[in-house]
Amino acid sequence: MSTTKVKAAQLWGKNKDDLKKQLVELKAELASLRTQKVAGGANSKLTKIHDLRKSIARVLTVINATQRSQLRLFYKNKKYLPLDLRAKKTRAMRRRLTKHEATLVSEKQKKRQMHFPQRKFAVKVRLPYYLTCVAQGGGWKRQDGLVQVFPMEE
To answer: Which helix (DSSP H) or strand (DSSP E) does residue 78 occupy?
Structure first.
């Protein structure tokens, strides 16, 4: 039985069987320390119990992380992904249309856009004098205090 802390860096290199074996050993050691504490052991047992609990958590974390990474590899090119492997985001973001779905246009809408395109209008605006004296070469034309927008010649 080991009484030193388990380092996470050492755990990443081990395989699943070694990790399970180490987990069983740590749990057995924790159980024996708890019985010693109840029987009236020294106060130093409390720090050892704390360290053991944290070591067990580290081993479980490594086991779970490797298992999730293996599952991610398995489901990499599949159509569906398990819920716990999907991106969390927010509920609204998960229900939002995808980019592909948002850009889809129905046949009826395509025909409507083709036969009735968006019209372009000339705008006539009354502006103060200092705004109307804009250069006349690019789209503005002064006409008795009115400013008319006309298309630029290409």
So the answer is: none
Which tens digits make up the pLDDT trace of 46-66? 888 999 999 999 999 999 999
3-state class of 10 per DSSP? Answer: helix
CB 125 within 8 A of CB 147: yes
pTM of the full predicted structure? 0.59
Distance, CA of 131 to CA of 140 (rounded, Å): 10
Amino acid letter, residue 139: G
Q: Which candidate, 61, 96, 97, 68, places its Cα nearest to that of 83?
A: 68
What is 79-114 written as a DSSP string? S---GGGS----HHHHHSPPHHHHH---HHHHHHHH
**Sheet of 140-143, strand order:** 124-126, 146-149, 140-143
